[in-house]
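Whether sequence alone determines local backbone shape is best considered at the level of individual chains. For completeness, the protein is quoted in full, as a sequence line and a line of structure tokens:
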Amino acid sequence: MIMARERVQDAGVFADLSTELARILALKVPADRLGDAADPALLLDCGAATGHYLHELLDTTPHTRGIALDLSIAGLKRAARHPRTLALAWDLWQPLPLASDSVDLLLDVFAPRNVSEYARVLRAGGLAVVVTPGDAHLRELRAAGLLTVQGQKLQQLRDQMTPAFGSAELNTQVTATASVDSELAADLVFMGPAGHHHEHAALRDGLVASGVSQVTVDLDVSLWRG
């Protein structure tokens, strides 16, 4: 699953999400909140997997450091490759291993959300950025019977976050189409929670027969202020 995710990210299927996250960081975080060499800002990636998005944000902000939390040791080994990332194996449903009011930017991409802990560790004025799949996300693979995406993800997110954070400061949408071959399409299925239900070679062969050659990327990006 982790290797499939790494191949998908390296292929640039979600490159527009990376661009949007960098835009939000530049637009919504004042330069003086991004720290300096003596006091670097802290970026926390919850459900980080390989740390792909965290690494890209760290690379655009030299006076920051990152913490990647995930249960996958295989993913965390990759997340730890960035010299300013501390990678920790952690269950997100447990109290987070950080001091209160210590995080400047919290990132959650498709991961479970421990909202009360997010509110505890985020500094006043800090940002929580949460990415959820939109209704059209990977609809070609869903039409082929290979994926299911529960609807109303954005409303569920609002219902979860509002008691602790109030209304979202920003909601934006990332939409794109990406060309895929059968190998990459299989990786898109295999990287998700349904991946363990499939055998990769059989999945690839089924995708050849289905004729899927492109996929829709439809993501909701929501921002809350601590």
User: Anything to note?
Assistant: The longest helix spans residues 15-28. The beta strands are 41-46, 64-70, 85-89, 103-109, 122-133, 170-179, 214-225. The chain has one domain: 2-135+149-177+218-225.
